[in-house]
Design a protein that fits this description.
The chain has a single domain, classed as Roll (SH3 type barrels), CATH 2.30.30. Helix content is 10%, strand content 40%. Strands 1, 2, 3, 4, 5 and 6 form a six-stranded antiparallel β-sheet that branches. The longest helix has 9 residues. Belongs to the snRNP Sm proteins family. It holds the Pfam family LSM. This is Sm domain-containing protein. It is found in: Nucleus.
């Protein structure tokens, strides 16, 4: 699995089951799987079992929305990374 980018800023990931997780974005891979560290759940009364979880890997197919703070995104760095050509595939 290839990691598309690493980043280290706070984000909120809302899942399709209405669970919202706040945490530090660690990485995103080619399948849009998201690794978060130092997480917290916005509605602890509804999901008390998430209190003991500190890090998580979220499968890309269960993500409904992802909020990133606009002031912390390095737009030029992200655009440069998106322009890189993919490595040739082995056949």
């Amino acid at each position: 699995i290839t990691t598309l980018f690493y980043s280290f800023f706070k984000s909120v990931v809302e899942l399709k089951n209405d669970l919202s997780i706040c945490g530090t974005l660690y990485s995103v891979d080619q399948y849009l799987n998201i690794k978060l560290t130092n997480i917290s759940v916005t509605d602890l009364e509804k999901y008390p079992h998430m209190l003991s979880v500190k890090n998580c890997l979220i499968q890309g197919s269960v993500v409904a929305y992802m909020q990133l703070p606009a002031d912390e995104i390095h737009k030029q760095l992200l655009q440069d990374a998106a322009r890189k050509e993919p490595l040739p595939q082995k056949q």
